[in-house]
Amino acid sequence: MAGAGSTALAACGGGGIADEGTNVASVSKAATTASPDGTTIPSATSIVDSAGNVWTLVSNRVTRNGTSVATGSAKPLTLILWYGGVIYAQNADGIWYKNGSPWTSLGANDPRPKTNAASLFYGMNGHMAYNSGIYKTTTPAAQLALLQDLGAGIYRCDTAGAGMSQVLADALNGAFKGSGVQILPVLNPISAGWNITSTESAAYTLGYNLGVNCTKPLKGLVKYVECGNECDVPLKIGGNGASCADWSPAYWPSFRGVIRGMIDGVKAVDPTIQVGVNVGIPMAYRALQMLWNGISPDGTADGVGGAALVRWDITMYHWYKSSYDILYAGGPARVDIPQVLKDSFGMPIWLTEFGWSGSLDTPDTAAAYVTKAMTQYKSIKDKYNIQCIMMYCVIDPNYGLIQADGVTKNPAYSAYKNFVAANPV
């Protein structure tokens, strides 16, 4: 904020130590570009204000340029926020303090205005919890700013353990708090060590532990969790996936086990969370039907019944340009995929990934696809109860609305943004 450079700063645990100007870190004015509005510590490690001061949180003390100063809080500080040109701090009891001379207590009132939840219908994919690469260097606040500029109301991010989920939780408690933009965590059992050759029991245990460990940090912060990401892909042994005979009898028990385990693990932590299950193969609706109806593949077209029934709250599906029209899928079969999903499960449908054909598309054909696909999905959403469509993805060299540098916007960025602006839901 204006004049922040001359105000006294604050440490937790009372003002005594802080008022002595303790040098707790060798941090100096190292930047002149202010951090993005909404940046928080955590998940950022430092914040630069408009005057170039560097703020950090060290041993629960707020510091400016390496010197801790007094906020007036008698309790440890747990969060620093840069919002609207002002530095704020929150203590362990949830009490907020506003930078000034002296600092002002705001009580439990979060300085970020409450925002009505954005529509779930328009969503995006990203990889916020990656520990390296462009998603690591692009702060949650900066990613949120992109989502808000696009008009996306929900952000699908993968997690394969408690640490990755904590990154998402920090974002939800930080930059995303009060923004109206939700996060959909998608559990990735393959990254957690799931092997299709494992027994159903072993796969269930892995899935259950994954569900529990990933959900604990997110309890109370998310409403939805996607259990698995295209786990069907390594199981297909023939055909296009529309027949039970297309699926491996040997690997199916492990697939069913890990899906069941993830669902049960999530629900064990928070039974109010709505869970979804997806498939990645275009005609793999049969795999979902088999899970739902307790059918196992045995080499025949119909399979064999008697297995545990799997239940979810949201039917999730992936569809890319390379699979052509979702209403006339499978070549001559001309299968209406949304109708099959609606009739088979009676649950809301989310397309948690849709996108163009990667490097096979030019920037202009990718943008044209975005407009065409979103036009179709919006036109059929009420007929099939399609609640959400999620573009893949924000930043990616082949599929991104933004190129791998995290800065250069492709024509598809404007196509998405303009469609959402012109077609509110």
From TrEMBL:
Alphabetical list of InterPro entries matching this protein: GH (IPR017853)
Protein name, entry field: Asl1-like glycosyl hydrolase catalytic domain-containing protein
Organism lineage: Bacteria, Pseudomonadati, Pseudomonadota, Betaproteobacteria, Burkholderiales
